[in-house]
Amino acid sequence: MAAELHLFVLWEKARFAERRIMDDLRAQADIEIVDVRELAFRGDPAASYKAFYGPKKPLDAALKTRKCGGGPFLLIVVRNLNPTYGSRWARDEKYYIANELMYDLKKRYREWAGRKHRVHGTTSVKESVRDLFLLTGHTAEEWARGVPDGVRLNIPAKAGWRTVVDDKGAELGLAGCRVLQEDRYINDVFFEGRFKGRDAVVKCSSTCAWSVGNEFRLASRLHAAAPPVVPEPLAVWTSDDGRRAFVVTEKVSGPSLTELLAQGVTDAQADGFAADILMLAKALKDTCVLHRDLFADNLLLGQDGHLKAIDWQLAIDRNDYREDPWVAAHPKFLYVVFGVNRDLGLGVWNDFRALVKILGLLPQTEAVRAAASRLADEAPQMTFEARPGGLARLRLRLYAVSLRLQMALRGRKHRKYAQLERRYRTIVGSVAEWEGPNG
């Protein structure tokens, strides 16, 4: 397996163990120390901690600051020369696939620092790519070519985006912006405001700026082909260095289809939604765009009564397939498909089959059944497949092992057992299909 870049961070209150940790790293046969440097937070440490750890890890930022300190901290960039992966136990009571050496070193250094909160370390390539950029302002590819000059903190903060949106947004026609939501996984902040007199949402990202531009381009094509079922993209901005971007889209304030189904959908509404889904399917086919993330949560009800498909940042153009570089660097987005598509197989996407599943959630009127039958007939011609390489297959097998362990620990009566089993069978079946009878 190819060498991997990783990092450790010794927050201020772990610095007393710095010499011991550095000596241990130098003694590791499979570790090459690439760079060591001291960094300091720009502005409020609590806000920086919150932005760094993000939405996937709920954080009491004030408590984190007290435990770890807000002063200068040490960044250690290393190269794991012979990475191996296996299942490791996580705090949320489930197994996950991790770089074994990095996981073990991280655990050791946390013990040496007295409290585990005081040392941060990466245990996957995905985590390393993200953290390198946030802590140094340089991509993993730049680090792979050598130690970049001018390493600086690039942790996004709400105040920073506030300035950008007010400044660049005003040039585009934005006004009255306010934070709507923060830290939604691959995006930093969502704002809402007015764009040339229209209600709008601003999606800001400093972790996958290319994907924001992709969302604007493909959503623009789909909106032109089917205006009632795709919110109109209004503007896009990308920084000169290409590392920050935001996209402005008309705001859809209605509930999702999931929420509508919970409230109860009438037969008349179901007929209208079936027509919207057919319109969306035709637009996808005519424009050769694949959404890859169609499920009931991503269909919102607009003020005009039509369902509108959102979240186009991971969509691809089937006429000119060039994978989003950010997506390509995060294998789970290639091989573990979101939402209802997950049940269709890993690495194989078919928006028409996903839409048939959505139609199956609606009251089964004659119009709904006819729409589902029509899409099912066309689905075989709409399949897109991206076969995984050997490394991806290995990761999927290891993931399958972790799922089996979770199933064994929870038992058949656990509420999540059926979901874990379904995911396990999907992964095993997909890997077996790709590898063929000869393995």
What does this structure look like?
With 439 residues, the protein is α+β, with helices and mostly antiparallel strands. The protein has four domains: 141 residues, 2-Layer Sandwich (Alpha-Beta Plaits), CATH 3.30.70; 93 residues, Phosphorylase Kinase, domain 1 (2-Layer Sandwich); 134 residues, Transferase(Phosphotransferase), domain 1; 45 residues. 42% of the residues lie in helices and 21% in strands. The chain is built from 16 helices and 17 strands. It has a five-stranded antiparallel sheet with strand order 7-8-9-11-10, sandwiched between helices. It has a four-stranded antiparallel sheet with strand order 2-3-1-6, with helices on both faces. Strand 7 and strand 8 form a beta hairpin. The longest helix has 21 residues. About 3% of the residues have low confidence.
Strands of the biggest beta sheet: in what spatial order? 7-8-9-11-10
Shape: globular
Q: What is the residue-mean pLDDT, rounded to a whole number?
A: 83
Give the uncertain stretches in residue-range form. 333-344
Q: Determine and state the CATH class of the largest domain.
A: Alpha Beta
Span between termini? 19 Å
Tally of contiguous helical segments = 16
